[in-house]
Specification:
Mean pLDDT: 87
Largest sheet: 5 strands, mixed
Structural class: alpha/beta
Number of helices: 11
Radius of gyration: 25 Å
Low-confidence stretches: none
Shape: elongated
Distance between the termini: 47 Å
Helix content: 25-40%
Strand content: 5-15%
Strand order of the largest sheet: 3-2-1-4-5
Oligomer: single chain
């Protein structure tokens, strides 16, 4: 048989299985138990929560939206806030609503995520006896600003953290922007920024990936992240005639083949070097994306 095109009659059955309150409470307790093993956490019931929203359809014209709170430690769902502007009540035009009316939100669809996030923070103590003191979200600061204004835990400060994937993407975006701005211009060596052996799309992807690895492989220590980002910069700048691998990790397990081959007969030929003029043009990007305050947002790993 072909699949049904009407799902209204299945909503109740699906809703009773998905997002079970008991299951989410168990996930909260599991996250608190996991937190006991973190020496940096004073209170194991102060959790790091990952928050993100989704809508029924793309764009900001949806009548329904969902915000999901996930534990950063266990990756399990701890809370769900469902927002709906749609009313099925027969007398809705007369503003008469049933007791079980599903409409629980009025406002712009784009602000549903903010409303859902504040709901989740407001009830964390009442429902689970936990505080979400580390907020891990995307680059949109509206929800975080709303939580700060709400002050669900009194004067306790909620810290904003971000996903490593987002800042990794930022490296690619910034490099593309530099390439666009420098189009048609020549650098100190009399050549353009792009072209063979210079900043190509493939090199941008590679630098973006390696920047993400520099953070992921050095979580919990900002100084190590910063060192790794600049190690990437000078590694890319290095040539056979002028190697600059002082910041790269040493030893046989190093990702830097120049240092890895030290003491052996192998010679690293620096196949992925970029000219000095190109790297000088990219230096401000590396400086901004190795900022200590920025990197502190990724200590959660």
């Amino acid at each position: 048989l072909p699949p049904s095109t009407r799902y209204g009659k299945y909503n109740f059955e699906i809703g009773s299985c998905v997002g079970s309150q008991g299951s989410m409470k168990e996930a909260v307790e599991e996250a608190a138990e996991e937190n006991k093993h973190n020496p940096d956490v004073l209170n194991p019931r102060d959790l790091t929560v990952v928050l993100d929203g989704t809508w029924q359809k793309r764009g900001h014209a949806s009548h329904n939206g969902v915000v999901i709170a996930t534990s950063a430690d266990t990756t399990k769902v701890m809370d769900v806030a469902i927002k709906s502007k749609y009313c099925r009540c027969p007398n809705r035009l007369k503003d008469e609503h049933r007791s079980n009316c599903q409409q629980n939100y009025s406002g712009s669809s784009g602000a549903m995520e903010v409303a859902g996030v504040t709901d989740i923070f407001s009830r964390s103590l009442q429902w689970y006896n936990v505080r979400y003191l580390n907020y891990l979200g995307d680059g949109d600061s509206k929800s975080f600003a709303a939580v700060n204004e709400l002050k669900p835990y009194g004067n306790e400060i909620i810290k904003k953290q971000e996903c490593i994937g987002h800042v990794q993407k930022r490296m690619g975006t910034r490099l593309l922007r530099v390439k666009t701005v420098m189009k048609g211009k020549v650098l100190a060596d009399g050549k353009p920024l792009g072209g063979k052996g210079r900043l190509t799309q493939e090199r941008i992807k590679r630098l973006q990936r390696d920047y993400g690895l520099a953070i992921r492989q050095n979580t919990h220590i900002v100084a190590a992240m910063k060192r790794a980002v600049w190690a990437l910069y000078f590694h890319t700048l290095s040539t056979k005639a002028n190697p600059q691998h002082g910041l790269c990790p040493k030893g046989p397990d190093s990702w830097c083949k120049y240092n890895k081959y030290q003491g052996s007969e192998k010679i690293y030929e620096h196949p992925h070097s970029l000219p000095t003029a190109v790297m000088e043009a990219l230096k401000p990007v590396f400086k901004d994306l190795s900022d200590t305050q920025l990197l502190e947002k990724y200590l959660h790993g």
